[in-house]
Specification:
6 strands; Collagenase (Catalytic Domain); four-stranded mixed beta sheet; binds zinc ion
Length: 274
């Protein structure tokens, strides 16, 4: 049994619950989506977010609506003295909303706050070592996503990675992929899929590609995906998402099955944008 298989039952069981919850909030989302999109925000995105410049006009229109929803619904908070600006909100909302294009679910229903540090920050982590004990570890981070909690981002990484496109690293796409994965209550690399019948194929392809990446890493073989994706299935999905949007041509050529699964999930085909 692969590591993605257990996730199938969990993901399928929350489909019904999530459908009811979404119907309740759809009216509110429609109200927010018709708000006008300020021209200066469009200019900010042209400047700050390279991926935005490549989007077809129809998807830009959709994105504008999702950005309005995101900014109206989510609370932004600056940490370590950082003052949140409109530029920060628009840039983060745009990249987070890239993952929602063409999808029925047009928000992140479990997310309320985005916490933003000026730069990379130190986080305390408790690592279990068995026997009920743990060690305290300090790690330097550019972002993290909490289940039923906030997304935390380092603004300097956000800004740099939004402009420097094509290298497969994008902390906003990464952390918001975790949010989608965490919607069913478990961070396991298996987000909620539209159809129950899709879970088996998802698990088969993800298992195969995850094991391949782990093997590539063990044999010091370079992959189109960053090695960090070999950490666990949740990180695999987040790194695969970054690669899908930032290096679509390479991913489609080298891992066509993985590209096809992500294309089905995200309902966009970034190869056509570049
Ligand atoms: Zn991650």
């Amino acid at each position: 049994m692969g590591v993605f298989d257990l996730a199938i039952a969990v993901g399928a069981s929350v489909l019904v619950f999530m459908a009811g919850k979404r119907a309740f909030s759809n009216w509110k989302l429609k109200q927010l989506a018709v708000l006008p999109f300020p021209a200066r925000w469009g200019k900010m995105l042209e400047r700050n977010v390279t991926l935005y410049r490549h989007l077809p006009d129809e998807l830009k229109e959709q994105l504008h609506k999702d950005i309005n929803i995101f900014i109206a619904e989510k609370h932004f908070e600056g940490l370590d003295g950082l003052e949140i600006t409109e530029e920060m909100k628009v840039t983060i909302a745009a990249e987070a909303s890239m993952l929602l294009l063409n999808r029925k679910n047009r928000d992140y229903p479990g997310l309320f706050s985005i916490l933003v540090y000026p730069g990379a920050y130190v986080a305390q982590q408790k690592i279990p070592v068995g026997g009920g004990t743990h060690i305290d570890l300090q790690t330097v981070r550019a972002g993290e996503s909490w289940q039923h909690g906030p997304v935390v981002l380092a603004w300097d990484h956000v800004k740099q990675e939004a402009v420097n496109f094509n290298n497969g690293h994008n902390v906003v796409l990464h952390e918001f992929a975790h949010q989608l994965d965490q919607e069913d209550g478990i961070s396991d690399g298996a987000p909620i899929l539209e159809k129950r019948s899709s879970y088996l194929t998802w698990a088969r392809i993800m298992n195969k590609e995850y094991e391949q990446l782990r093997s590539d890493m063990e044999h010091h073989k370079k992959s189109v995906m960053d090695d960090y994706g070999a950490t666990n299935p949740a990180e695999f999905f987040a790194v695969a998402t970054e690669t899908f949007f930032e290096k679509p041509k390479q991913l489609k050529k080298i891992k066509p099955d993985l590209y096809a699964e992500l294309k089905g999930f995200y309902r966009v085909d970034p190869v056509e944008w570049l």
